[in-house]
Structures are given as structure tokens and as C-alpha cells.
UniProtKB/TrEMBL annotation, chain A:
InterPro entries: CidB/LrgB. Its main location: membrane. This is LrgB family protein. It comes from the Bacteria. The chain crosses the membrane at residues 6-23, 35-58, 64-85, 97-124, 144-176, 212-235.
Automatic annotation (TrEMBL), chain B:
Pfam families: LrgA. Signal peptide: none annotated. It is found in: Cell membrane. The chain crosses the membrane at residues 62-81, 87-110. It comes from Nocardioides phosphati. It comes from the Bacteria. Keywords: Cell membrane, Membrane, Transmembrane, Transmembrane helix. This is CidA/LrgA family protein. It is a multi-pass membrane protein.
Amino acid sequence: MTDALDWLRTSPLLGLFLTLLGYRLGQELQKRVPAAWKAVAQPVVVALVVIGLALWALDLSYEQYLVGGSIIGFFLGPATVALAVPLHRQAHHLGRMFVPMVVALPVGAVVSITTGVLAVRLLGGDHVLELTMAPKAATTPVSLAVSGAIGGLPALTAVLAIVTGIVGAVAGPAVLDLVRVRDRRARGLAIGASSHGIGTSRALREHPTEGAFSGLAMGLTALLVSLLTPVVLLLL
Amino acid sequence: MINGLLWLLGFQLAGEVVVRSLDLTVPGPVMGMVLLFVVLQLRRPPASANLFRAADGLLKHLQLLFIPAGVGVVTLLHVVGEQPVPIVGALLVSWLAGIVTVGWLTTLLLGRSSGSSGASVGGAR
């Protein structure tokens, strides 16, 4: 048994299997929970709990898990490229959306960065945490790079970005219902701008238009956050 | 499926090369998305193209692909424990400010007339 476990620790098999298993369990659970819980029971949330418990029970490190897990993670790259497809299908909306996008997305990025920094300051966090929080609305690879460049902690920024995305997937549509944003294009932009890829995964399942604009907002916000964060920080 | 994947990987590759040679801060896959969008708009392939099948297949399971990075978060949660109130509080406040700002501003700029396009959420929700 210990021999088998030692072998599994170095094999990609276990990480791959756990990732797919956690995801499938998450999907099945989401189907079975009462309607009010469906938003919270996002497959990614359930999978993180399942895999976290499995790693703890089997005494596996994150690096050992990643031997297999990174095979799945790799496909995030081509999947991001694939977001061009829903956007292509919604391209007829683009002309009408040009002005709203050119105004709302930069304003949204500045608001995200500013409120992040000021809220940390107000709640008693230190200066490094302010810098770490600033770029968290951007997709993980970008927020991580920006954080490193401005003197934040990239590893913690990655955590914040992913948690932000999960919050967006869980609560984004409900918040937009609450503040009466009903237009699918506006909802998509808002989710992608605030909750990047993980939020986009939820938006894609809500409606194709919502998903397409969420993917677009995610891409543009990545660009805006990398350009605007150093500028906004100078003013704060 | 293989052809479709080949297209996606090819555009990711092109994106990574462009970003690196121009020294941009945009991630390679995002640049690949822009390039693929431009090509799709110019060439307008039929709806049955392999690329669409591969793209739809991947996007259907987008959440799956975030799990490995998310597991890293679980192993780093102790860092959050050092300054829990500013971290959790600022994250939620800033996320809420961002999503509401973009949602409201876009709605405002689109004008009220666009609500009837069929692409909006019905009252049933």
C-alpha cells in the first residue's frame, strides 16, 4: 500500500484523476442541491474542497498534485483563445457596444484598483497588502505579473484573483439582479471586468451573449489593469 | 477535434510570440484570442468548422481548467489568516464596486431602449 502510494505521489495519474473526479462530483452535486444553493455549489468550489481533503488525507504536497493537475491547467491557455468564438458569434453587438465599453471598462478598472487599495488602508492592512490587492481584478497571470512589478506579493495576488473569480461565479449574477442590471451585454461586461475567467465560466452558462462579453471584458481588463495600476497608485 | 485544437494552440502560440517580441504585459492567450477573433471576422468559417467544436467543448468545461490553480489557493490560505479583515473585506468591497460600476455605467450608456432586444433577463428571475 505504501509502495503504491509512493509511486502515485510521483505520477501524474493521481492529480489528473482527482481533478476530474472533484469536478464531476461538483457537477453532480450542483444538479442535486435545491435551487437556492445552485449558485454557491459551483463545480470549482466543490472540487477545491474535495481535492484539498484528498491531498490532506494522502499527505500530498501541492507540487506533487500539480504533476498531474498542471496537465488540466495547461488547457486554460487554449480555452482563453477559444473565447474568440463566442465573441465572433456576438460580433453584431459590437458596434453598439463600442462607446459603453471604451468608457465603462477603464472606469471599472480604476474603481477596482482604487477601492482595493483604499479599503485595505481603511481596514488596517499594511502597504504591501495594498499593492498586492490593487491588480486582483485582472486574470491571474496578469494580476500576478503586475503585483510583482509594483512591489506586491505575487503569490498572494494570485490567491486574491482566484478568490475574486470564485466570488464572481457564485454571487455575480445575483448582485447584478439586485442592482437591476438586466441587459445581457452589460451583465457580461460587468462579470468579466470584475471576476475575469472564473466569472466568465458562469456567464457562459447563463447566456451566450453574457459569456461572450464577459470574455471580452476579461481580456480588455487584463490590458487596462496592467496599464493603469502603476498610474493609479501614483495618485493614491 | 484535433484540427480544432491545432487552431487554438496555433493562435496561442502566435499570441505568445507576439506578446514576447513586442514586450507587452498582456498574456499570450489573450493576444491569441484577439488574433483569432480578427481572423474569424475576416474569413467567416461555416458553423460546422472543427474549430467551433473544439472551442465549445473547452469552454463548456472552463471551470474545470481553473481547479489546479485554485488548489494552490487552498494551500496558501494560511497567508490570508495573517491579515484576515483587510484581505477579505477589501476583496469583497472592491469586487462589488467594480461589478456594480461596470454594470450600471454600461446600462446607462446603452440607454433604456435596448432592454427589449431579447438579450436581457426576463422578469421571472
